[in-house]
Amino acid sequence: MYNFTADDDVTAHIRTLVEHFVPVAGMTDVELAEWIRAQGIDILVDLNGHTAHNRLPLFLRKPAPIQVTWLGYLATTGLPTMDYRLTDARADPPGRTESLHTETLWRLPDGLWCYEPHRFAPAVAPLPALRTGRLTFASFNNPAKVSVTILGVWARILQAVSDARLLLIRSALAARTTELERFFAGRGVDPRRVEFLERRSTADYLALYDRVDVALDTWPCAGGTTTCDALWMGVPTVTLAGDRSFSRSGASVLASVGLPDLIAETADDYVDRATAVAGDLPRLATLRDTLRERVRASPLVDARRFAAAIEHAYLAMAERALAGAEGARP
Q: What is the pLDDT of residue 40?
C-alpha cells in the first residue's frame, strides 16, 4: 500500500518489485481499514511512526491481526494496537527500553538497518588531513538534530584539537547561523573554524566527504542514513549512545560494521574517542582506505540476509499469534 501522491522514477521502480501496488492516500481510515480486512492482510507494517503523512489512526482500528512498526520513527508509537517494533540489541539493549514501549520489541539478529549505497557515489578520496595539515570534523545531519548539548560537546572537541575545523549544514532558519557562531565564540572557539554549508544535491553532498576526516554524530537524535553515507565515503563516525532508541541508531550502524570503539556512552567519552581517533592519522588513513570494503562485506548492505531476517520475524510473529489463538479456545 502506497500512502503518498508522488509518482516518480523511484515509485516506478518499486512497482516493478512487488505483486500489488495500491495507492491509498485518497482513502479514509475507515475505508482503508475495511479494504485491509477484506483483503485478508495478516501483517500490517507502519513505516512512519509519529512523522509526516503517517496513518497511525488507521492502526488504532486494528484492521490486521498483527501490526508492526519499523524504521521511520525510532521510538514507540504509543498505540495499544501496535503489536511489535522491529529493532536490534544495540539500538534497544535487552532490559533497558521495554518499559518505554507499548509494543513488544522484536530484535533483528544483525541490525535494524539495511543500506543501499548510492550507485553514483564518487570514489573515496585520500585522507584530507594529509593534504591540509589539519583535522576536519563534520556533521552533515539534519540541522534540526543539532542540540545545544551536542554543540557543547563539539566545542570541547575543537578546544582539544586546536587547529581543527568543523563543517555543518546551514539551517533554513536565517538567525541560526549567527546563534551558532556566537555559541562557539562564547566557548573559546573562533567562529571562523566552523563552516556552514548550503544544502545540495545528493551527489554533491557525497562529494563533501572528500573534505572530512572524522564525522560527528548528533544527539539526542542520532543519525542513520547519514552515518551510513559517511562510512561508505571512508569517513569514520563517532556517536554518543543515549538511553533511548532514537539516540542509539549510530551505535547500531557502527556495531554492524565492526566499529564499536567509536561508540561513546557519555559526553566525556565522546570527546575522548573523537580526539583519540583524530590524533591517530595512520589509523584514519587505514580506515579511509578500507571502510568501503568493510561496509560492503558487512550485514549492513546484505539485502538478502536482511530480507531473510525480516521474513523469519514475520513468520515467527504469525506462529506466535496462531499459538495464542489456539490456546485461547475453550
A: 96
All domains in the chain, ordered by first residue: 9-114+302-328 (3.40.50.11380), 128-299 (3.40.50.2000)
Residues 6+ apart with CB under 8 A from 239: 217, 219, 222, 223, 227, 250, 251, 254, 262, 263, 264, 270
Confidence of residue 174 (pLDDT cuts 50, 70, 90): confident
The answer to pTM > 0.90 is yes
| Helix, strand, or coil (residue 219) | strand
Distance CA 256, CA 112 (A): 10
Q: How far is CA 101 from CA 37, 97, 197, 318, in A?
A: 26, 7, 37, 21
Residue 159 near residue 218, CB atoms below 8 Å: no
User: Rounded to 5 degrees, what are φ and ψ at 45?
Assistant: -115, 130
Judge whether 86 and 313 are in contact, CB under 8 Å.
Answer: yes
Q: Report the relative pairing of strands 263-264 and 84-88 from DSSP bridges.
A: unpaired
